[in-house]
Amino acid sequence: MYCVSTRFIHLLGIVYFIIGCQIATAYGQKPVPKEVQTHIDAVETNLAVFFPKTDSITGYASLAERMAYYNVNALSIAVINNGKLEWAKAYGFANAEDRIEATPTTMFQAASISKSVNALCVMKLVDEKKLSLTEDVRKYLSGWRLPISDTARGYEVNLANLLSHTAGLSVHGFEGYEVGKPMPTSTVAILNGKPPTNSPAVQFVTKPNVGFKYSGGGILVVQEILEEQFNLPYTTILDKKVLIPLQMKHSTFTQPLPVECRDKAAVGYRVTGKPLTGKWHIYPEQAAAGLWTTPSDLANFIIAIQKSYNKKKGFIKQQTAHTMVTPYLAGTKVGLGVFESAWGDTPFFNHGGANEGFRSFYCGSLTTGKGIVIMINSDNDRIFKEIVYTVAKDYNWKNEKTIQPNK
User: Fold this and answer.
1) Digit-coded pLDDT (tens) for 29-43
2) I need a surface site. Which of 116, 161, 223, 406 has the fewest CB within 10 A?
3) Which residues are in the Beta-lactamase-related domain (predicted)?
4) pLDDT tens, 144-157?
5) Can you name the residues that pair with 108 across neighbouring β-strands?
């Protein structure tokens, strides 16, 4: 676990919110430069409003108005510009019942964005020659075996298949477990669908390498591989290889959420505004959905890939970064743990997330050093389109259409 969490820091963040000093992380307590404040104002006071299910802008409104319209209790955002975190702010209530304000260090469930961070860990281990993207994963598995299937008989499955959802495996996603309810105690139990697991066993539904089939089950296989290969808890591996090196100080894959982190975690809410029973669900499917984090920490993750891609103090090798963000299978837009997208002629990588009571989205440019991360404690993510469009236009991302979050 790598999670800096004290009640003092949390309360200090609330004070900053109240006195209007919730300053961009990049500037600490210094005044925000006028140019940056102009960008912040665009989001806070002049958000593009879209007609439902269309790309038609019907007007402009404040962020507060749109949060109220969509019944979003808390929203946290980080904006990357010129390869650096330019500003980060949070709005609303992390806990509406107790009137606890959200701050930039409030932790949200990243949901499927966990898959991107998991993939970066794998790429780091590939650089260290401890794993191979191309060899059959059966060589790494002994405590659990890929299911025998006539559909996939005779075919190999590699880590690149699993990370790009081209392995042909089942189980799209996971609903998590209510706090206090029975839950599986091992990754193998979940893979086998053994009670009290609430998802079916992971099976082949198509042949490997024939197309894209989103599979959280396949990412869970990666979790099992890491645990078996290194004989360590998954969260320990991710701390050592990604979270600590990238200074993601307010992040953890530990499930259930550690006690020392709970006072700074957002409560999850339904579209109706009703809080989840127990405040949030528990996700033992850590690699697929288990990350708790902040937009600022995810900005560090995005910047690490951007720098590696452009060979600037790379966290991973440049060629490894190119492999990660390039579609693995022709005809898809899916790299290893990320989706490919573009704004005009500018290539981006992105991923979205949807856990019970939480939604998230990030995208990062591969060539211009721009990007954004948005996290909310709501099941309704329609506000994302309005924020991403506004930021893209304000920062001149040069694209007429918005990126649709992939989940």
Assistant:
1) 468 899 999 999 999
2) 406
3) 64-381
4) 999 988 888 889 99
5) 293
Structure tokens at 127: 């650089």
Inter-residue contact 177 to 282 (CB < 8 Å): yes
- B/e letters for 337-367, b = 16+ CB within 10 Å, e = fewer, are bbbbbebeeebbbbbbbbbbbbbbbbbbbbe
User: Rounded to an integer, what distance in angstroms lies between the CA atom of residue 374 and that of residue 26?
Assistant: 17
Q: What is the DSSP string of 192-220?
A: TT-TT--SPPP-B-S-TTSS----HHHHH
What φ, ψ does residue 145 adopt, rounded to 5°? -120, 145
CA end-to-end span of the chain:
25
Residue 179: name the closest of 105, 103, 55, 262 by CA.
Answer: 262
Please tell me whether residue 264 adopts helix, strand or coil conformation. Answer: helix
Q: Is the pLDDT of residue 68 over 60?
A: yes
Burial 41-75 (b: 16+ CB within 10 A, else e): ebbeeebbbbeeeeeeeeeebebeebbeebebbbb
The residue written with tokens 């006690």 in the block is 259
pTM of the model: 0.92
Residue-range domains of the chain with CATH: 1-407 (3.40.710.10)
**SS3 of residue 26 by DSSP:** helix
Q: What is the pLDDT of residues 212-267, one digit of tens each?
A: 999 999 999 999 999 999 999 999 999 999 999 999 999 999 999 999 999 999 99
DSSP-assigned states of every residue in 137-168: GGGG-SSS-PPP-TTTTT---BHHHHHTT-S-
